């Protein structure tokens, strides 16, 4: 979706880069890594998703999907993490995060959009797996009523939350379909990384940034990464980068 016109006009007066995000949001991790790789200064607007701070009318006026991240750049509002990191890399030229050739750039977009298009499969796996262990992920009836009133932009996301918050929740079939989609993605990655250090070309790019947060959150759901040995070398190279430490680890919720 990229650049939008917010109904909450207060953000249009913002100067510099502002990011609405959450610590454990995989989509927000992408943007924080990109910001760190580019060496850009930015102002944090950290939202507590468990408290529903992304579901207020004020925030829906900034991001009509009621999700993080949202980037505001001198009053310009950009949503969708893939579009945000692409925007940042195009606008701020130092530290390019894209391949040099046109064919490799198209391959980069293939990986980026594969992650974006399968986002709900990953959410289904996460919510379906963790939700069975923790009931506090579900919303109350009042919260769902308010969410229905505000969520008018992304009907597939609304359907997802309706399903998760129903008495039945996700069925085994739902989890099976989601797992098949994720397995297929990681099989493609594992094959690519068999003889290559990075997903595209010969250097770290937006493609790698798009996918590494998926490993972070799926690890919490005990996804069987041992089935994809070539991901391990790739993952270990990325987690040593300062951008991962500053953009992911530094924002992890502190354990009490």
Short description:
With 256 residues, the protein is α+β, with helices and mostly antiparallel strands.
Note the topology:
Blueprint: E1 2-4, E2 17-21, H1 26-38, E3 43-46, H2 57-60, E4 70-73, E5 76-79, H3 81-91, H4 102-117, H5 119-131, H6 141-150, H7 155-165, H8 172-192, H9 206-220, H10 230-239, H11 242-247
Helix pairs in contact: 1-3, 1-9, 4-9, 5-8, 5-9
Written account of the structure:
- It is a single chain.
- With 256 residues, the chain is α+β, with helices and mostly antiparallel strands.
- It has two domains: 2-91, Glutaredoxin (3-Layer(aba) Sandwich), CATH 3.40.30.10; 102-240, Glutathione S-transferase Yfyf (Class Pi), Chain A, domain 2, CATH 1.20.1050.10.
- The longest helix is centred in the last third of the chain and has 21 residues, at 172-192.
- It is globular.
- It is 51% helix and 8% strand.
What would the principal axes of the Cα set say about the shape?
A: globular
Structural class: alpha+beta
Largest sheet descriptor:
5 strands, mixed
Stretches with pLDDT under 50, minimum 5 residues? none
* Sheet with most strands: strand arrangement: 1-5-4-2-3
| CATH hierarchy class name of the largest domain | Mainly Alpha
How many β-strand stretches?
5
